[in-house]
Design brief:
Elements (H helix, E strand, L loop, with lengths): L1 H15 L2 H34 L2 E7 L4 H10 L4 E5 L7 H5 L5 E6 L1 H6 L4 E3 L7 H4 L3 H12 L4 H8 L21 H42 L3 H5 L4 H35 L3 H5 L2 H25 L10 H7 L5 H10 L4 H8 L4 H11 L5 H29 L9 H9 L1
Parallel strand pairs: 1-2, 1-3
Antiparallel strand pairs: 3-4
Helix pairs in contact: 1-11, 2-11, 9-11, 9-13, 9-17, 11-13, 13-17, 13-18, 15-17, 16-17
C-alpha cells in the first residue's frame, strides 16, 4: 500500500506541474459557464425583443365587439394595437406582403355560426401570437350568450370552467394540510436534481481524468521508462497507484468546477444549493459516481498498457475509449420514460449504469430501491472482475514494446 500511495503522489505531482492539465483544469468550468451565459443572454434578448414588439391587429367587426376586445387587451396587458378595418378578405394578401407583426381578423356573422373566425398574419410574427389571440374567444362567446337573453349570473355560471386536477398524497403534510402543488413539485425536484447534478459533475470529472490513465501507461512505454519504474514497484502497485492518483486529480477537477460553478448557479437561478446538497441522498449519488470511476479506470489502465503509442491506437482500443459515453444512447428514452423497460435495462448494464442510475434517480418521484440495489451489486461485481482482469493485462502489457496488442493476444494473457 505504501508503494501504491507513492505512485499516486508521483502521478498527482507530475500532472499538477503539467501546463496543459492546469489550463484544462480551469478552462473546462469556464467554458461551461461561458456557454450557459451566452445561452441565457440569447434567450433574454429574444424574449425582450418579442416583448418590445407591438403587434398591429386590424379587425373587421361585424359583431360590434371592438370596444370589449380593447378592454380585454388592456386587462391582460397584451402588446396589441387594435384598429378597425373594412377591408375584404381577398384584398388582405396585398396588404400583408411587406408587413411585419401585422394581422387581420374577420369577426363575421358567418364565423359566429361556424365557430371559426379567419385570421391572416404577416410572415414575421411575434412568438405565441396564435395562443394569445385565443383569449378573444371568451369575449366573443360572452357577447353571443348575452344576445341569446341570458342574465349576468347565468353567463358567469356558464363561463366558469370545471377542471379535473390530479393530486398526489405526498401533497398532504403531517398536519393534514394540503401543500401547493407547484411549490411541492419544485421542492421535490430540487431535492433530487441538486445532489444528482453534484454527482454528475464528479462522475464527469473523474471519468475524464480516468481517460488520462489510458495515455499514461502507453506514454511511459513510449518513453521507455516503464522498466525503470517496475524495478522499484510491482505491476499491481503501479496500476493501483495510477487509479488512486487519477481519482484525486479528478476530484480536484470536480472541486474547481464546483467552486466556480456554484456561485454562478446561485446568482443565475437563485437556487439555495446548500439546502439541497447536504442531505443523505448526496452520499448515494456520489457513491455511484465513484463506482463508475473505478470501473472505467480498471478498463482504461488495463487496455492502455497494451498500446505502444496512443496515436496508433487500433479500432479495439478506440471502442474502449467510447464506453463512458454509452449512456448517451439511452438518454432520450430514459428522459421520456425513466421507469420504462429501456431505462431498467440500461441501469443493469455496468458501462451505462452509473450515468443512467443518477439520471433516473433525479427524474423519478419514488426510487425503485430493488433496482438500485441490484444495479449497485452488478456494478461492484463488475469492478472486482475488471480489476482482476486489468491486473493480468497490465502485468504483461506494460512490458510489451513496439506494437499494440490484439484482442486475441489479450485473451491469451487472461487465460494464462
Amino acid at each position: 500500500m505504501n508503494k501504491t500511495m507513492k505512485v499516486a503522489k508521483w502521478e498527482i505531482k507530475r500532472n499538477l506541474k503539467n501546463k496543459s492539465f492546469l489550463v484544462s483544469l480551469f478552462l473546462t468550468p469556464l467554458l461551461f459557464i461561458g456557454f450557459m451565459l451566452v445561452g441565457s443572454l440569447l434567450d433574454d434578448s429574444e424574449e425582450s425583443d418579442a416583448a418590445d414588439k407591438t403587434t398591429t391587429i386590424y379587425i373587421k367587426d361585424e359583431l360590434q365587439v371592438f370596444p370589449l376586445l380593447e378592454e380585454t387587451v388592456r386587462q391582460f396587458e397584451l402588446n396589441f394595437e387594435l384598429q378597425k378595418t373594412d377591408i375584404a378578405e381577398d384584398a388582405v394578401k396585398g396588404e400583408l406582403e411587406d408587413s411585419e407583426d401585422t394581422a387581420y381578423i374577420f369577426l363575421t356573422e358567418k364565423g359566429l355560426e361556424t365557430g371559426v373566425f379567419p385570421v391572416y398574419t404577416s410572415t414575421e410574427m411575434v412568438p405565441f401570437f396564435e395562443s394569445q389571440i385565443q383569449i378573444f374567444s371568451e369575449t366573443i362567446k360572452s357577447v353571443h350568450l348575452r344576445q341569446l337573453g341570458l342574465s349576468d349570473e347565468q353567463l358567469a355560471e356558464i363561463s366558469r370552467p370545471f377542471v379535473f386536477e390530479q393530486k398526489s398524497v405526498d401533497l398532504i403534510d403531517e398536519n393534514g394540510n394540503v401543500i401547493e402543488e407547484e411549490e411541492a413539485s419544485e421542492e421535490d425536484f430540487l431535492k433530487k436534481a441538486v445532489p444528482a447534478g453534484f454527482a454528475g459533475i464528479i462522475l464527469f470529472s473523474i471519468v475524464v481524468t480516468s481517460m488520462m490513465i489510458f495515455t499514461s501507461a502507453s506514454q511511459e512505454k513510449k518513453d521507455k521508462i516503464a522498466e525503470i519504474i517496475l524495478s522499484s514497484v510491482t505491476p499491481g502497485d503501479l496500476m493501483q497507484g495510477k487509479i488512486v492518483g487519477y481519482f484525486v486529480l479528478g476530484m480536484i477537477q470536480a472541486l474547481v468546477i464546483l467552486l466556480l460553478g456554484i456561485p454562478f448557479v446561485i446568482y443565475q437561478f437563485d437556487i439555495p444549493i446548500a439546502e439541497y446538497l447536504f442531505v443523505p441522498e448526496t452520499l448515494l449519488f456520489v457513491l455511484i459516481a465513484v463506482l463508475g470511476y473505478l470501473l472505467f479506470a480498471a478498463i482504461f489502465v488495463g487496455i492502455g498498457s497494451t498500446m505502444a503509442d496512443i496515436s496508433t491506437a487500433g479500432n479495439f482500443q478506440g471502442l474502449v475509449i467510447m464506453l463512458p459515453f454509452l449512456p448517451l444512447f439511452f438518454l432520450g428514452p430514459v428522459i421520456a420514460n425513466p421507469d420504462g423497460m429501456i431505462a431498467q435495462i440500461a441501469t443493469y448494464i455496468p458501462f451505462s449504469s452509473p450515468g443512467i442510475l443518477i439520471l433516473r434517480m433525479a427524474l423519478l418521484d419514488e426510487w425503485p430501491w430493488l433496482e438500485i440495489i441490484i444495479a449497485l451489486a452488478i456494478l461492484i461485481l463488475s469492478i472486482w472482475l475488471f480489476m482482476k482482469l486489468a491486473g493480468k493485462i497490465f502485468k504483461v502489457g506494460i512490458l510489451l514494446y513496439g506494437k499494440n496488442a490484439t484482442p486475441q493476444e489479450i485473451w491469451k494473457w487472461l487465460r494464462a
